Amino acid sequence: MKKIILSLLLVCTMPFTLLANNSTTYKHAKQSELTKSLIRKISNDKNKHFKNKKYVKSTKNYSNSKKHKVMHVTATAYTSSKRETQGDPTIAAWGTKLKPGMKVIAVSRDLLKKGMRNGTRVKIDGLSGTYIVRDKMAARWRNKIDIYMGNSRSKAMQWGRRKVVIRWA
């Protein structure tokens, strides 16, 4: 806090101290540098307490500069196998026909309450591309996503269970 106040004092008194210099270019350059460093310091201090939270709203850019949500979840994988579902293994919860190669995820019901819907685009840290929410998981799961791996049981087993960070708008 002391650093912020000191920086504010420097920014406020800067025009008066540099008037004796008679160099307007120098004055504006120094003011701009101090303002940028002050803004950087304030934003770093503001975001410190978010680092260990489970659910964070962020103002970083994510497709068309919308605010996006960030969350730490457990990620597992699933396939189009009869033993992994009750009905047709190629039909998702909202009726989407799943085909191998599609970037689709299923989400736990609590994530639906936090703003995810059918068709929500999700970025998963560590994986390329954007995944689309097209399926939902059984009611017993919390804070979890299931990544669709087509027909490849070996890919699903290789993925296993991981903690990942997801971002969605």
UniProtKB/TrEMBL annotation:
CDD domains: DPBB_MltA_YuiC-like. Keywords: Signal. This is 3D domain-containing protein. It comes from hydrothermal vent metagenome.
